[in-house]
Amino acid sequence: MDWATFVQLCVNGLTLGSVYALLALGYSMVYGVLKLLNFAHGDVFMIGAFVGYGILTSFGGSLNLSISVWLVIVLMMGGAMIGCGFLGVLIERVAYRPLRAAPRIAPLISALGVSFFLANSAQLLFGAASKSYDTFGLVPPEDGIHWRNLNIWWIQVLVIGSAFLFMAFLTWLVQRTKIGKAMRAVSFDREAAAMMGIDPDRVIVYTFFIGSALAGAAGVLIGLVLFQAFPYMGFNYGLQAFTAAVVGGIGYIPGAMFGGLLIGFVQSFSQYYFTTWFQLVSLSLLVAVMLIRPSGLFGKATLEKV
Amino acid sequence: MADEDLQHAQVPADKPRIGVDEWVAREEELRLDQGLLGPVRLFVARVPWWTLLLGAAVGGVLIGAIVDDEYFLQVGFDTLIYVLLALGLNVVVGWAGLLDLGYVVFLGVGAYGFAWLSSGHFDIHLSAFASVPIIVAGTALVGLVIGLTSWRLLGDYLAIVTLFVLQIFITWGNNGDDINIPFVDDPVNLTNGANGIHPVDSFDLIIWKAETVKDYYFLALGVALILLAALYLLNESRTGRAWRALREDALAANVLSMPVNRLKLLAFVFGAAIGGLSGTVFAASQNSVFPADFNLQKLILIYAMVILGGAGSLPGVVVGAIVINVSDRLLTTPENARLIFYGGIIIALLALVPRRRWGPYWVAGIAAGTVAFGFAVRAVVGVFWPNGVDGTLPGEGSLTNALSHWVLVPTDPFDIGRYAYVLLVALVVSLTFIHGIWRRLLVAPLIYLAACVWENVLVAEPATTRLILLGALLVALMNLRPEGLFGTARVEVV
Amino acid sequence: MLQLRGLSLAFGGLSVLQDLEIVVNKGEIVSVIGPNGAGKTTLFNVITGLYKPDAGEILFDDQNIAGMSPDRINKLGIARTFQTLRLFLNMSVKENVMAVQYGRTRSGPLRSMLRTPGMRREEREINRRAEERLAFFGERLMGYRWDQPAYSLSYANRRRLEIARATATQPKLLLLDEPAAGMNPTETQEITGLIGQLREEGGYTILVIEHDMHVVEGISDRVVALDHGVKIAEGSFEQVATDERVIEAYLGLRTADTK
User: Fold this and answer.
1) What DSSP string describes chain A?
2) Domain that holds residue A69
3) Would residue A131 count as lying in a domain?
4) So what's the pLDDT on residue B223?
5) Which of A48, A165, B104, B253 allows an S-S link to A216, with CB 3.0 to 4.6 Å?
6) What is the pLDDT of residues C187-242, one digit of tens each?
7) Is A205 near chain B, with CB under 8 Å?
8) Mutation choice for B interface testing from A87, A92, A96, A109 by most B CBs within 10 A
9) C2-77+171-258: what fold?
C-alpha cells in the first residue's frame, strides 16, 4: 500500500472513529449507571441524523441555503443534540425505569423493542430510502487541508474537532463537576449513593440526556461525513459502537473514547482489505478482547461480593 | 392455645392446616388464577402433560385433514416452523437465561446445510434421512463455537457477539458466491449470493417423501410434537433442573455441584440443533434458500413469540408462536389487519381492567364513548375542513365502508398522517404518566386517534407496521407482564 | 481432612487472608469467629473455589484443591451454605434439594429424553434422597411444603432448606456460614442441636462461621479466631474466649486491658 493511501485510511479512520467514540460514550455511560446495554441508543443516533437532515432542508437544503453553511451545521448539531437528549430521557422514563426491579433480561428486551419501534417508525415517517445530506454541495472536498500526502477535508476536520471537543467537555464534566462525581458514585453503588444524598433517578436522567445528546451530535456528524441518513443505520453503527465501548472497557469513559477510535481505524483499514467482510474483523477483535480481558482493555475488573 | 395444639395434633402433618397453612398451600392456584386467562392457566398446570400433547396432536391432525386450501395449510406450516424455532429459542433464553440475538443464524445454517447436501448445488442428493442428522450435528457444532464465547461473558456481552454473528452470517449469505480461499485456485461458491440456492430437494425420508404443502404441514407437525415431548422430558430431569437453578442463581448452582459454564453451553447447543432441524424442513418446503430469509425481523418475531407466550413455559411458547404468526399474517391485508387492531384494543381494555365481573360492561362503555366521540369529531371536521373526510380508505368490504364514515379520512393522508402518528405516540407515552380522572377521560379520544392513524397510515404499510407493533408489544409486555401469558412471575433478589 | 497452609489472598492492595494455617480433622466441629471484615466468608469462598488464592495450599484429603472449579470441589466432598441465603427461590422446596444432586448423577440429556431405566432409577433415587434430607428437619419441610416455591418459606425455614440442600450433595465436609443469623433464641437453640445432630447422624465434618457465642460454645470442638485475615487464636472455646487478642479484636484495646 502506498503512503498516500495509508494516510487517507488513517484520516478516514480518525473521522469514523471520532463518531464511534461519541456514540460509544453514550453506551458506556448508560451501562455505568444502569448496568444496561441500551440497544435503542443506535436508533437515537439515527433520529439525530434525521433531525439534522430536517433542519438542513428547512433552511433550503444544501443547494439553496438561506444562511451560512457553518451556521446551519451548528444549528443542525444543536437541534439534534437537544432533540435526542430529550428523546433519550423519554425512552428511559417509559421503557427502562419501570423495570428497575425486574430480572436483568427485561430491560434488555424492552430496549430491543424500543429499537425496533424507533427504526420502523422512522421508516414509516420518512420512507425506507436514505436521505442525502449532500455534503459535497455544502462544503466541497477541495476545501480543506491539502499538503503533500495529507488530504483532509474541512468537514472531516469539523467532525474530528467537534468529537474531541465533546469528549474533552465530558471528561471535564465527569472529573471536575458535582454532577460528574454523582454519576461516578451512582455507577459504583446506586444504593450507597442514594444514602449519601444523591438522587439516582436524577443522575440517571442526566446521564441519558448527555449520552443521547452526544448520539444526536454523532448522527449529524456521520450524516455529514457519509452523506446519508437511513432508518436502519442505527443497527450497524450501533453494533460497532457497542463493540468499541466493550473493547475499551464498558462503564469507563476514557475507555469508550479509545475504543471508538480503535474501531474506527479497524473498520477503515479492514474495509480497504476485506470490503464486505470487515465486520468479521471487528467481531474477532471483540471476541479476542472478551476472552483475554473480559472487562475490556481499560476497564477495571469488578469483583462480586459473595 | 390448647385448642390450636389439639388441632395441630389431629391433622396429619403432610396436609395444610386449615386457617394457618391453607392459604400458602393454595399459593399456586391463587397465583395462576388471575385475569382473563386464569382458568386456562390453571387447566394447563393441572392436566397431565401427555394429555395436553395428545390434545395438540389431535387438533393439529384434524386441521391438516380438514383444511384443503393451500394458503391456509401454508400458514399452518409456517406457524409450525415458528413453533419449532420458538421452542429452540426457549431453551436458550427461557431455560438457561442466555440472551442470544443471533438465533436465526442456526435456522440459516440448517437451511444452507440442507441445500448443500440435498440439492443440485454441489450435486449431492442425500436423502433427508442421511442429511438431517449431519446437518443437525453441524449446526450444533456451530452453536458450540459461538457458545464458547459465552464461557467468559456476562449475559449482556453475549447479546452483542450473537448480533454480530447474525450480521456476518447475512453478509456471508449475500457474498458467499465468491470466496477466495488461500491455496485454492478458483473462488468457492458456497451460497450463490443473493440469488440463493434453488431448486432444493424435497424432504425425502425414503419410505415417504414430502411433496405437497399438506405433506410438509404434517411433517412439521410431527417434528413439533416429537420435539415438544422430548423437551418436556428434558426439562423434568436433572438437566432441566440444573438449567433452572443456573438461571436462578448461577453462583450458588456452581458451588453446589452444577458445572455452570458447561450447562450454558449445552443449552446453547441444544437451541442450535433445534434451529438447524427447523432449517432443513424450511429449506425443503421452500425448495430454495435465500439469504433474505434470515434477518433481524425474523429474529424479533421469534423473540416476541417466546416472550408473549412466557419464556420458560412450553405451552406458552407454542401459544405465543401461533398468536404472533397468525396475527402477522392477518396484518398483510387491510381487511384482516383491522381485525387485529380492533380486536387487540378490546383485548387490551379487557386485560387492563382488574375486576373480572364488571370488565365487559366497562369496556362496552368505553367503546360506546369512543364511537360517539368519533362521530362528533368527524361531524365538526367535516364542516370546517372538507378535505379531511373526503378520501378513501384502503381495502374493501362492509367493515371498511362503515369505518370510512366514522374515522377521519383525509384526501391526502400522507403528510397529516405522519403528524398524527407522532401525536399518537406522544399521547400514548404521556398517558403512562397521567393518572386518575384525566387518564380515563383521554382513553376514548386516544382510541379514536389511534383508529384514524391506523386506517390511514399504518394499514397501508403492513411490513413496517408489523415491526412497529412488535417493538411496542415487547416494551408493553416487559412493563405490564414480563412473564408473558403462561410464564410464572418470578421473584428476584435484587 | 482439611488443611490450609500458608493461604493468602489480596484484593488489589487490601490483604484479606494472610498466611493462614488451619487444620480440621475428620469428625470435628470447628468454629471460625472474628469481627466483621475479618475474612471469614472470604475464607469459605476460597475453599469452595470461588476465589483463587494468591499463595498457599488447600489440602482436602491430601489433595490440593486451591483454584479448582467450584463444582469439582463440591464433587470431591465440600458443600456450603451462604450467609445471605442463596436459595433457588422460584423453584419448589423439593426441587431445590433435587437440583443440587446433579453432580452425583450421570444421566445425560439423551437418556433423560428417552427415559431409560437407568435414568428413571436415578430420578427415584434423587427423589428419595431429597425427601430424606428434608425429613431431617422434622415436619416443617415435609408434605404439601415440598411443592411450594421456595420464596413462600419463612426465614427460619429458608435457612433449614439451605442446609438441607447442602447436605444433599453428599459432602464429607460441610461449611456453614452463619447458620443462626437472624434467628430468635428458640430457633437458635434448635440450630445448635441440629448441628450436633448433623455430625452424629450424618457423619459430617463441620466448619462453622458464627457470631452468636452461645452457638459457638454449644457446638465447637475447637474455635479459630480471625482478624483482618490473620489467625489470632485457636483452641477450645474457653481458651479463645478469654484470649487477650480476641477480646481486643472484638471490643477494642482498652477493654482488653481492663479484662
Assistant:
1) --HHHHHHHHHHHHHHHHHHHHHHHHHHHHHHHH----TTHHHHHHHHHHHHHHHHHHTTTTTS-SS-HHHHHHHHHHHHHHHHHHHHHHHIIIIIGGGTTS-THHHHHHHHHHHHHHHHHHHHHH-SSPEE--HHHHS-TTSEEEETTEEEEHHHHHHHHHHHHHHHHHHHHHHHSHHHHHHHHHHH-HHHHHHTT--HHHHHHHHHHHHHHHHHHHHHHHHHHH-EE-TTHHHHHHHHHHHHHHHH-TT-HHHHHHHHHHHHHHHHHHHHHHGGGHHHHHHHHHHHHHHH-TT-SSPPPPPPP-
2) 17-135+152-243
3) yes
4) 93
5) A48
6) 888 888 888 888 888 888 999 998 888 888 888 889 988 888 888 888 888 888 88
7) no
8) A109
9) Rossmann fold (3.40.50)
